[in-house]
Amino acid sequence: MKPIVGALLLLAAGAAQGQDQTDRLLHAIAEDKEPVAAILVLGGKVDVHARNAARETPLHLAAEKNMQALTRLLLDAGGRVRARTETGETPLHLAALNADPGCTALLLDAGADPRALNDHGESALHWAALGGNTAVAQLLLKRGADPDAVDLNGNLALHGAADGGHAEMVRLLLPRTRRPGLKNLEGKSALDLARERGHDELARQF
Asked: Which structural domain range is residue 43 located in?
């Protein structure tokens, strides 16, 4: 075999192996096998910038599942905290789906933007508020998240908190929101949503 041909074959084999390892990484995260995923990252033969069909990176997937050890490894390996999915979500948006603020803290320490908006105009705070994840919301606010950000439907984070019946979240956001009575594009305020959903005790906080 000629040397140049042999070299090209070796490069192709290495690339295929790397692709295979990356696929294994994405599947391991999806299947909640954090130790397996961590070993693959430590092996150094995965592409930490790889994307799945939704254009989520391994960092997005790890943050969504609150895999803190893996999130730290991916960040150390160069995972991009400002990478966006096909609908504009950063890993911080997905971390905000968890009650535990661990991954949120890791991403913020690595330079994630707490004010970043997805294609629907939603911030990580919007997502945390809708899920009632108060500890995450507290951390986001402490690190500069905007409680007055309005999504494309005219909703504040407060709207999501009220809609979900999350009394503790409403107590957190209400004094920090300049216009708590703001109406969305459907003409409804956060208070209106609380009343519509039958959250009467929560509505009395307004």
From this structure: 3-92+102-113
C-alpha 142/C-alpha 165 separation (Å) is: 23
6-26 pLDDT, tens digit per residue, is 333 333 334 334 469 999 999
Asked if the structure places residue 156 within a domain, the reply is no
For the stretch 69-77, contacts whose Cβ atoms lie closer than 8 Å and that sit 24 or more positions apart, written own/partner, are: 69/34, 69/38, 70/29, 70/34, 70/37, 70/38, 70/41, 71/95, 71/103, 71/106, 71/107, 72/106, 73/38, 73/41, 73/42, 74/41, 74/48, 75/106, 75/107, 75/110, 77/41, 77/44, 77/48
pLDDT tens-place string over residues 77-117: 999 999 999 999 999 999 999 999 999 999 999 999 999 99
CATH code for position 9? 1.25.40.20
